[in-house]
Structures are given as structure tokens and as C-alpha cells.
Amino acid sequence: MRTAKAASAANNLSDAELAQRVAARDRDAFAVLMRRHNQTLYRTARSILKNDAEAEDAVQDAYLRAYRAIGEFRGDAKLSTWLVRIVANEAIGRLRRLRRGAEVIQLEGEFESDIEGAEESMHVKAPDRPEGAALRAETRHLLEAKIDGLPDAFRAVFVLRALEELSVEETAAALEIPEATVRSRFFRARGLLREALSKEIDLAYGDAFSFDGARCDHIVAAVLAKLEASGDA
Length: 233
Description:
The protein is mainly alpha-helical. Helix content is 72%, strand content 0%. It has helices spanning 4-11, 15-23, 27-49, 52-69, 79-99, 112-122, 135-148, 152-163, 168-175, 179-204, 214-230.
């Protein structure tokens, strides 16, 4: 029977030590490994699939593959890089099956033809949002939508570099593309996002400190009430 003490001890292990424990079929170590890398792997799968449920399924299948193959992990790369490569391949394969032979993400080659369409879709004004919605949540949703609007290969690079803060070398190894390609796509992705978010800000200027709706009604009612009370009405 597994104990909380065993799980707590596994938390203090390095990735290399965890890998050794998992290879020996230590379930506590495997649970710690998954919790440690869940966010990175989910973000990787989500950047390829653009679907929450499919990304979760891809991560689960990737962990199963990793569990069965972890005895082959020799530590030549970081464990996180090895896991990202597995989940990226799983997500790409899943995308290919979902699209049933349609053109799917290719992590090699250039994607200049995708940029014009991406720019157009990223500049579309977001739907009006109810006043009082949580600003942080709205900002997050806006950013996620704009990241989803990036060309496929740009999106995977951006998520690993900006969100997960992997180095150029780690990203290139995880996606199996040249480091120069990582640099150019990350630069272009940041430019696309910056421009798209700037458009959103420009469109929001007219709504800043808006004075309609309930606030306007409150002022009018309060002034009329004061006039009534003062006898000036």
C-alpha cells in the first residue's frame, strides 16, 4: 500500500532519479513526475490541437507511452525535453487522425503563406463583454484566443519559449527543428501577437471609462431626487 510518506519522499527526487524509479515501476514516483510536468505537456499538446479535451487525452496517452518506454531514457537530454517530444508526436498523430488526411501541422519548413490569414483572424474585434467581468480572466481569454490564431508551427514554438520558458536549444530538441527556425518563428509569433493585441487596445479606447448603462441611470436619478428634495423641481 502506498503511503503519503512515500509520495512526499518522491517529491524531493530529481528528474533523473524519478525516471529511474518509474523505470522500476514505482507508481508514487510516476505520479510525482506527472504532476511536475503536467502543465508543460498540456500546453504543448494544446498548442498543437487547439482543443482542451483532445489535449488532455493526448497528454494521457503520451504519459502511457513514456511509462512504457522510460527504461530507454538515458539522460542525454532533459527529461522534460524527452516528454515534450513524446507529447508533441502524440498530438500531431492525433491531429492527423482528426483531420483524416487533411493538411496537418508540420514542424519543419516555412509557413509564410499562413501568416496573412493568421493576421486577419487575429485582428477581428472580440465580442463585447459584459461590464464588470474579471479583467484578468478576460485578458487571459483574449491572449489564449490570439495564441490560438497563430500559424500552427509558430504556436508550438511560442508556447514552449514564452509560456514554458524553454531555451532555444531545449525547444529545438523537443520539436526536432533547427535552432535558427525556433528563433525566427518565436520572433515572428511575438510580432503577430503584439500587433493583434495592439489592435484590441485601439478598439477598446472608445469604451474606456464608459458612462452609460447603470452608472448613467444612477447619476440621473440621484440628481433628479436632489432637485425634488430641494424644491427646485
